[in-house]
Amino acid sequence: QEQLAESGGGLVQPGGSLRLSCVASTNIFNNNDIHWYRQAPGKRREWVARITRGGNVLYDNSVKGRFTISRDNDKNTVYLQMNSLKREDTAIYYCNIIPPLAWGQGTQVTVSS
């Protein structure tokens, strides 16, 4: 029974869009702020965005204005809508809490022409 599960990644063209989903267990979803991270090969994992239990959102400057984080309380799901994708957005995307639980497999996002 996974506590966090990412999905929605894929291959898209530069300038394209993709929506990622993070399904959390009820306990995790109701008691934690949820964060999105990403990691490209050879690079360290970096923080991307956060949404609090009250719906307050925060973004890294590299994605501000292009990505939107949201949550659906009835589905225990956090989303990351990614628009105007760039090649440098290519990475495995993960969701987690702070302090982090064990990292899952994430979902691969590849931006290429």
Number of helices: 1
Percent of residues in helices? under 10%
Q: Main sheet? A: 6 strands, mixed
Low-confidence stretches: none
Question: Any idea what the shape is?
Answer: globular
Give the percentage of residues in beta strands.
Answer: over 45%
Read across the widest sheet, the strand sequence of neighbours is 2-10-9-4-5-6
How would you classify the helix and strand content by structural class? mainly beta
Q: Element order, helices and strands?
A: EEEHEEEEEEE
User: How many β-strand runs?
Assistant: 10
Rg to the nearest angstrom? 13 Å
What does this structure look like?
The protein is mainly β and about 110 residues long. It has one helix at about 25-30; strands at about 5, 10, 20-25, 35-40, 45-50, 55-60, 65-70, 75-80, 90-95, 105-110. Strands 2-10-9-4-5-6 form a 6-stranded mixed beta sheet, with no helix packed on it. A 4-stranded antiparallel beta sheet has the order 1-3-8-7. The termini are far apart. About 30% of the residues are buried. The model has no long low-confidence stretch (mean pLDDT about 95).
Supply the key terms.
113 residues, mainly beta, six-stranded mixed sheet, four-stranded antiparallel sheet, 1 helix, 10 strands, 46% strand, globular
Please provide a brief summary of the model.
The chain has 113 residues and is mainly beta.
